[in-house]
Design goal:
This protein is mostly helical. The chain has helices at residues 15-26, 31-38, 43-64. The chain has one domain.
Length: 100
C-alpha cells in the first residue's frame, strides 16, 4: 500500500488530491492555488501540506549537505546545469514565524 510508512501515511485526503497539491506546489503556485486545484477547502489543511512539502525539500537539501552523491554540498551548491554558480534568491515564508 502506498500510504503505509510514507509521506502520505496519516493524511485523510485521497491520493489524487495530494498529488495535485504537490504538483502545483512544485510549480511555485500559491498555497491557495494549490488547494483550489486539489479541491482542498480547509485553510489549515493547505497550510499543513505546504509545510510538509517544504519539510521534504529541507530534508533533501540537508542530506545533500552531508556529502550525498547528487550535487555538491549545500555550501557550494551548484545551481547552473553547466556547473557555473548562479546567484541565489531566497524567499522567506513568514507563515512559520511565531511571535512570543
Amino acid at each position: 500500500m502506498v500510504r503505509q510508512n510514507s509521506f502520505f501515511e496519516r493524511s485523510h485526503l485521497d491520493l489524487p488530491s495530494i498529488l495535485s497539491f504537490i504538483y502545483f506546489w512544485a510549480k511555485n503556485a500559491t498555497l491557495g492555488q494549490c488547494a483550489e486545484e486539489a479541491g482542498i477547502s480547509s485553510s489549515s489543511t493547505q497550510t499543513q501540506w505546504g509545510i510538509r512539502c517544504r519539510s521534504v525539500c529541507e530534508l533533501w537539501l540537508n542530506h545533500q549537505g552531508q556529502g550525498a552523491t547528487m550535487g555538491a554540498p549545500i555550501g557550494d551548491f551548484k545551481l547552473g546545469a553547466d556547473g557555473n554558480l548562479v546567484p541565489k534568491e531566497v524567499e522567506i515564508d513568514e507563515s512559520n514565524f511565531v511571535i512570543l
